[in-house]
What does this fold into?
Amino acid sequence: MRWLFYITTLSILVGLPGCDYRSSGNVWAMPGLSLPSSSLPKFTDGQSSSAKKQQFTEYLLPLVKNMNFVILKKRELLKKAYEQYRGKESLSRSAKNFVKRLASEYKVPIDDEGSLSDNIFKQLLLRVDAIPPNLVLAQAANESAWGTSRFARQGNNLFGQWCYQKGCGIIPNARSEDATHEVKKFTSPAQSVVAYMRNLNTNPAYSKFRSIRHNLRQQGKKVSGRAVVKGLVNYSARGMGYVDSLTSLMNTYKDNWPDAPQVETN
It folds into this structure.
């Protein structure tokens, strides 16, 4: 299911033309991203199918890599705080605030007193992690018809994500009379990618995806798209048929789509 539980506006610095990653003097400053507001290129104008797919990849892949870069920066800081916590060191106020902001961002509950616990850190480590680029590209290609679908063109939605407030998106033509969902509209394709990554990292429907990813890390193995895709059986009513179609896409474009995030951390 393409449920969109919430979308948060991020301030992240992306290494795209005109933007670059910058670090703060404060070690516990939350890494962020400055999202490009450009609209989708017109992938079909006078292009062959292979050229369209190549342009789609060249457009989306740098954005995915930079978003993963920022997520992994957050993960590094989270691990640093957890090491201090497990070592019985007293966390600074800045470190505690960082973990609490991360918990809010990734929907990990903290008690009313705001106390941190071993379980909070473990839940965050399951969620604050990168998404294999080839999996992102496969889902985007599948859900948006390589950036040419109605929802991609009119709503900047590359992943078929749903919303449930009237007027929040585009009503699907085939929606049943008793259904209330719409296909979410985004201000830019970049916002669609942010929401998709947050969805996979927080939605209860994808807990299996996160468990597979975590287990691979614990075993020191590569977190590849083809290894974690089975955790997305709930993304579509097609179930394993959907998973098989994503796997086929990743196999077809294995020479063009990176199979794992550019930075590996346990």
